[in-house]
Amino acid sequence: MTTNRETRKSRVFIVPTLKSQLQLTTELASRLQQQRIKVTLCTPNNSGLTQEIITISKKTNSTINNREHINTIKNFCENLYLLALSQLKYRAAPMRSRIKYLRTARDFFQKKKIAKLEISKSQSTHLICFEDGISSPFEYISAAIELKIPVIVVPYEISNHQDFQNLLLEKYADGTLYEVPNSALGQLIRSKHAQWIKTYKRKNFLLFPPEYILAREDIIGELQNPWTVHGGPSSYIAVESENTMRVYRDENIDEKKLVPTGSIYCDLIYEKISEHGDAKRAFENKKKIAPNKTKILVSLPPNYHATRAKFCEFESYSTVWQQLKRLEDENEQLEISVSIHPNTLDSDREVINNLNLNTIENGVITAIPVHDLFFTCFSSTIRWALAAGKPVINYDMYGFNLSIYDNSPGFFSFANFSNSKEKVLKMLNNEYYETQARGMEENRKIWGEIDGRATENIVRLITEHN
After folding, report:
1. What is the DSSP string of 365-409?
2. Which three-class secondary structure state does DSSP give residue 126?
3. Residue 32 pLDDT exceeds 90
4. pTM, 2 dp
5. What is the spatial distance between Cα 386 and Cα 410, in angstroms, rounded to a whole number?
6. Does the domain at residues 4-263+452-463 carry the CATH identifier 3.30.2310.20?
7. Which superkingdom heads the taxonomic lineage of this protein's source (predicted)?
8. Mean pLDDT across the stretch 58-87?
9. Domain 277-446's class?
């Protein structure tokens, strides 16, 4: 059992980098503060989230990282860069590549130096981030490792190598992959950093320019596996469930860093069920919230027509929403609520609002237990719907064709809207719905334990690993 003395000794530095991580940031900061763990929230440079993170800090009584020293470090790094020009590391490379490498290395050095100073000033004992791979706050992770403080990943989503394969194919189609060059830099990547290379159609490709990869490996440190979300050097990953443990093992993530904790998202669902009588009865009895209505929660991805239009059966993103509105209008028993993705463009948001669909503002997680069905497209939140015993209708509108939820009872995936609609209409029948819900009962725990104990487990992970 964690004591008050242990929690008071702990100070965490939390680094959100995406808008979609802010709800988890808010909940995590609030719950840790309630457990007397001091929280500092980071506002990463150029993330565009500064004002929102400041708002979260006030709401959760957390502090904000100190950035007063940035200009001093920038000036220092500019001087270091000019000095480095006379001591080039990669003399055999073309001058243009050497300059590009040095500029990138300078930027990484600067960011890491800032991160190290911010973490030190906060007197943090742990760093918490939401992923540790190519999209992570890697300068903060590297700084924390040098400061010898544990780095804990509290995942905000779930994906695997299939998502990176889709990214590879997208970039190949639009010509934005980087072929490994036959230059000295290319030879270095082949010999020392081959984990960055992915072969496709008998050619070797990189997601980033070779100069970027070499600078990152030199300044930040080795990234063990760039082709999975958690392929980096974190100390621990707070594993949400039995199935996420399986995913991480399949991705060859180091077993020693995988610590089962459950998810704060599951605690949110547990609390919502506990306070909402109809939701509690539905959860316990595998029935609908109300017997004469079928409440469907819709959470679709933002508009990917710019990169994946060829996989979608409709010419425009708005047509999908129009089809959903028509489905509701044609069926009085059906009640649709929409959780709009945080990254949805303002123009698309306006289209959704103009259709007069009911939109919810408090996030998709707490909406799941007060609905009967979840209609989505390979959202990471599918795992919480399955854990909550809510059947999922997955309309794969952009042809992602992922297998991560295959064989999960209650998960129904379709490549076209007409088949998705047909399944929705079947679910209007209470007897059919209850049969599906009962079929999920035995397996729903493998996606998440709805028991209200995840926060306690994450606190224990922090306090027991100083």
Report:
1. HHHGGG-SEEEESS-TTHHHHHHTT--EEEE-TT-----TTTT-T
2. strand
3. yes
4. 0.92
5. 7
6. no
7. Bacteria
8. 67
9. alpha beta
